Amino acid sequence: MCEDLKILKQGAEAKLYICNYLGRPTLIKERFEKKYRQPELDTAITKERIKNEARAIVRCKTAGVKTPSLYLVDFDRRRIYMQHFEDSITIKDFIINVFKKHEQNGSGDGLNSLDKVSVLIGQTVRKLHDNNIIHGDLTTSNMLLVQKNENVDEHDAKWLQIENLELVMIDFGLSFIDSSTEDKGVDLYVLERALISTHNDYPDIFTKILNAYKSYSKNNVKEIISKFEEVRARGRKRTMVG
Ligand SMILES: Nc1ncnc2c1ncn2[C@@H]1O[C@H](COP(=O)(O)OP(=O)(O)O)[C@@H](O)[C@H]1O
Ligand SMILES: [Mg+2]
User: Fold this and answer.
1) Domain shared by 77 and 112, yes or no
2) Which range marks the domain in which residue 27 is found?
3) Residue whose CA lies nearest to ligand 1 atom number 4
4) At what angle do helices 205-216 and 181-198 cross, to 10 degrees?
5) Ligand 1 centre from 142 Cα, in Å?
6) Which tens digits make up the pLDDT trace of 87-133?
7) Does the active-site annotation cover 137?
């Protein structure tokens, strides 16, 4: 069914394989057993995660958020088959690269592309929330940049120019559908925490993302932001107490 299965990476939850499935570059995400969990519970949790991932991918289509295409779900083997973006970079690596280049040659145009990435992130999260999709694990490792124009390859000078890239959202295992402002606020808080720990050399990024998030559409934005601030204040209190 699948040719040339190769392991790509092993994460905390899943093994990722790449292969050729029906002539298309495919990524298989196989969630492995957690031995510390009771087996029936483990199976149920895994099935739930796979369902969440598949459901969100379908829903993102209507929301206008780009994700990998879903090819196949195999519950027995705990696998989901999806489109593999061979020439992609995570936003995490993109940001780290821009900073590296900036340090090496002091060029300012890279920093300009960070502003554009922040806007892309803010708009995309907003589109998810406007469609009541809560991602559940918003980090810059779960956002890819891919070429808009498929004719540009990795060796072309145009590769990695932000104007030619679009955001692909991935890793929807913890996602769910909810219309509450509270859950949207929590989603933003998760993103803020992730940014603080991953991109501490770029402290403005979250503010920039939030500005783009606020201005992209107007649905309930005030309530969502005040919920977000409430959640953040609770989080602070918790860390102070220890
Ligand atoms: N469809 C895809 N195309 C290209 N790379 C991908 C794709 N899906 C995942 N990746 C890469 O694999 C990494 C881990 O995948 P992810 O779905 O986030 O699983 P995990 O649960 O291990 O975080 C991502 O950060 C990204 O680098
Ligand atoms: Mg991930």
Assistant:
1) no
2) 2-83
3) 85
4) 150
5) 7
6) 999 999 999 999 898 888 876 677 889 999 999 999 999 999 999 99
7) yes
